[in-house]
Amino acid sequence: MIILFLLGFYFLVCVGVLLFNFWKVVSDRIVQLRTSHLTQHYLSLFRTISNGQFSNSDTFAIRSLYSLTHLIAFQRAFDIFEATDDYVASESLPVLAHIVQGLCPYYSKRSNAIQAYYSFLINRFQVMKYAPSEIITSFLLDQVQNNNGLYNLENALRAIYSSDNASLVVEALEYLNIADELPINSKLLADGLLIFAHPDNLIVLLWDNFSSYRPELQCSLLNYIRYSSNKWGTQILSLLDKTTDLELQIACLRYLGKYPEDRFFSILRKLAKESETTTPWEITAVCASELASYPCDETISLLIQMLYSQNWYVRNNAASSLKKLRPTLKELQEILDGNDRYAKEILQYYFDLPPEKEIRKGVAPT
Known about the structure:
Layout: H1 2-50, H2 59-63, H3 68-84, H4 86-101, H5 104-107, H6 112-124, H7 127-130, H8 134-146, H9 150-161, H10 166-178, H11 186-193, H12 199-209, H13 215-228, H14 233-242, H15 246-258, H16 262-273, H17 281-290, H18 297-306, H19 312-325, H20 329-336, H21 341-350
Helix pairs in contact: 1-3, 3-4, 6-9, 8-9, 8-10, 9-11, 10-12, 11-13, 13-15, 14-15, 15-17, 16-17, 17-19, 18-19, 19-21
């Protein structure tokens, strides 16, 4: 009896699983067909807009976007439309931006996940460029201030960066600055800022407020400045001279390597020559890396001496920089014939030299 009961129960479970799988396949197919239909509907809408035949009286097209399913189809249709004709799609953005902007009162009250998606659409349809408004600005700043999740924060910041308003970007950064800890990865922040179309205008404001920012945020902003402009060497040197924060010092030194100048070379050379007992090894290692931007005999000679460092990172960076500068084998002979095993090994690794190989005059292998 028990066996029959177990067999019956097993049979019912199998039937239930089959029915569930059948229902899942059918429902997925229905959703796929519906999404395809909606996508075609919005593609027709975009063609109407591109032909100049769309007006604000076409309220059905706008009201339907209060459905998340319709909104997703709207975005997917625009992706297809843009891939088909990028120029026509860009010409339609002003109208589409106003449509997306009008959805803000509704989607600002939805769940965090949906708000994150709506922030993405604000950036996707360049609402801050073509249809900026107080309600959109307030919504995005609330997303930054409340920090309801990484997607909410990142999408809202990218939408803000897409505007032409440097003051708005600085206001958003202020919210990040007052948080208990920096709520976004330093690289994500620096990379995101590169979206902003007028970096020099933004950097002026960043320098005006720089001293009020926390060190982690300062490092991100210095990385952004390094990627964006070569006009701020004087300010970078001043900061390098004043700051005692190691990460800030490293960020400043990387700027000096990014945009080579004689005045920068003298500083890198001086720091590289300082004793590792008085200078943090991180500073020496970064100098060894950035000296690759200053190809000359003096640089090669200095990097060769740095191969004798007791710190592996310093030796590694020095050898890597020498690889880029292509010294002659004669210049490397001192190391390869010497007794410092560690210097010899790192050099053999980077220049692909087998141990005990006789080095002859000429250019080092690459």
